[in-house]
Amino acid sequence: MCGIYGSTIEYSKKQVQDKLERAKFRGPDKLDFKFFGDESKPIIFGHNRLAIIDVDERSNQPFTYNNSIHIVFNGEVYNFKVLKKQLEAKGYKFNTTSDTEVICAAYLEYGEDCVNYLGGMFAFVIYDETKQKLFGARDRLGKKPFYYYLNEKQFEFASQISSIQMHHTNLTISNKAISYYLAWGAIPDPHSIFNEIKKLQAGHCFSLNLTAYDFKERKYWDIDTNVKNPFQGSYKDAIAELDGFISSAVSTRLFADVPVGVFLSGGVDSSVVAALATKTTDSKVKTFSVKFNEKGFDESVYAQQVADHLQTDHHIIECNYNEGLDLIDNFTHFYDEPFADSSAIPSMLLAKHTRKKVTVALSGDGGDESFIGYERYKWMKQVNHLYNLPSFLRHTAAKTASLAPYYKLKMIGKGLQYEDINSLYIASVTGVNMSWLKSDFDYTDVPEKKYLYHNTKNLYERLTDFDIKTYLNWDINTKVDRATMAYSLEARAPLMDHSIVEFAQSLPTDFKYNGKIQKRILKDVLYQYVPEKIFDRPKAGFTMPFAEWFKHELKDYVLSELDMASLREIPNIDADEVYKMIQQHMNGSWNRYPLIWKLLVLKQWLKTNGRGYTIK
């Protein structure tokens, strides 16, 4: 896990150094850069290294293979040992024990199709000196970030947008991206907060001919919306196969030349990772969880029960209010474009303290999306029945529910006003009441809608496909990458192994959700190792008690930061409407904490990272 940087723009060594120093938290072990090409066609590669595999300096980057292949690489290729043996059989020689060198050899052997042979999380760029081209790729599910600037004869890329931003004179803030952010809580790929900077999309690769300056991007992996190879075995067979897939994914992710641990929330996903970690290694597994003192937010007791059963070396990190406040103040230094998932703060706290014990941590991310785990999926199925009613009856029910004094009924009432279940679902993840957002375009009209609106799968499968391409990619991956890299901690997600995602998609829906049990097959894999009774409780999210803090401990802070004058300075919002909504939160009539947090983050970003830029 590292930070990569590169450019064809003529920056001085001091400027390149500055750009790498800005992202040094991603890789504090070695900062280095090299100039290739000549004065007329400079190629700059830079790297912040967090040494995980082959920590020897021989594997430092920028790395050169076979004299003509130069690479900067962020991430891990978990199948590199297998791939290395295959390449050795073809005559390739290796001088390190790193996966970086294997990517270079795979590129020489398979060309741009090398991405199809790489299993893991990655963002890399290769400078092929012989062919005078750049080739780069981002992993299938978008675990690793990749930003780039392209303008005529100029190309610049980085793991953090701030590295491109620094010493750059041709950037403007995207007004459209601000609207996207206010709706989705994150900025969808391929957009970024700057008009001139894009994100390479998940499962995509690119080539840039340095002679003709011809940039080509293509998709090399996607979700199978047609389920071409459905699973043919029994449910028992499927459990055994999934157990094998997860065991393999966990085992390969435990490999490192530095200490490794597991994030353990006490939920199903992290527990199955922890269970199979203890199964696949002889060492005592270190596990980590966060404890909150506020009632209803402390899940650490459940994590402790799982840890006791698995006999892990468990560490509970108590969330300190003041420590959390410090992270809020420095939030945009690490999340260097607006990002509104408030669970980023406890994620940062967890990473900060976990890093004191280990350099790599396995997480349970990806289980909800692949195995139909979110509560909103169940709710959508239930609400879908109402769409079979005549529209006048549905609208009458919607109006009645909207007038109810209960928050959930109000939300249902507003939701039922949408014309179909697909538009309702998008509203459920953006906001069913967006009257406060002033946008001159349809912020819900993202290309990923095609995964939701097609008719080749049932509702559950379409919802999860859509979330894999949107929520998992734009939100979860961004949150975890920035939170962990802020403290130079590498996060690995076994359940996001593409073989597991593809296997889950091949399964019959009732293997994953039979109408009563969500994540059915994943739970049955887990119950082979941990007693079911430990998980007999409602599902909880990884959140902080912001709703209460904003009404009490942070009330003065919120009201001063988001007073009427400040609200009028925030683009694309109806300040009067937002002010009323903030007052609703303070008097307890409506929970508005997600909106409050979203606005606080945007204001902070505009004040710090966005200062001095024009909004277009």
From TrEMBL:
Residues of the Glutamine amidotransferase type-2 domain: 2-211
Keyword check for Ligase: yes
Pfam families, per database record: Asn_synthase, GATase_7
Enzyme class: ligase
Reaction catalysed by this enzyme: L-aspartate + L-glutamine + ATP + H2O = L-asparagine + L-glutamate + AMP + diphosphate + H(+)
CDD domains according to UniProt: Asn_synthase_B_C, AsnB
InterPro entries for this protein: Asn_synth_AEB, Asn_synthase, ASN_synthetase/amidase, AsnB_N, GATase_2_dom, Ntn_hydrolases_N, Rossmann-like_a/b/a_fold
GO molecular function: asparagine synthase (glutamine-hydrolyzing) activity
Pathway involvement of the protein, from the record: Amino-acid biosynthesis; L-asparagine biosynthesis; L-asparagine from L-aspartate (L-Gln route): step 1/1
Family the entry assigns: Belongs to the asparagine synthetase family.
Protein name per Swiss-Prot or TrEMBL: asparagine synthase (glutamine-hydrolyzing)
Lineage per the UniProt record: Bacteria, Pseudomonadati, Bacteroidota, Flavobacteriia, Flavobacteriales
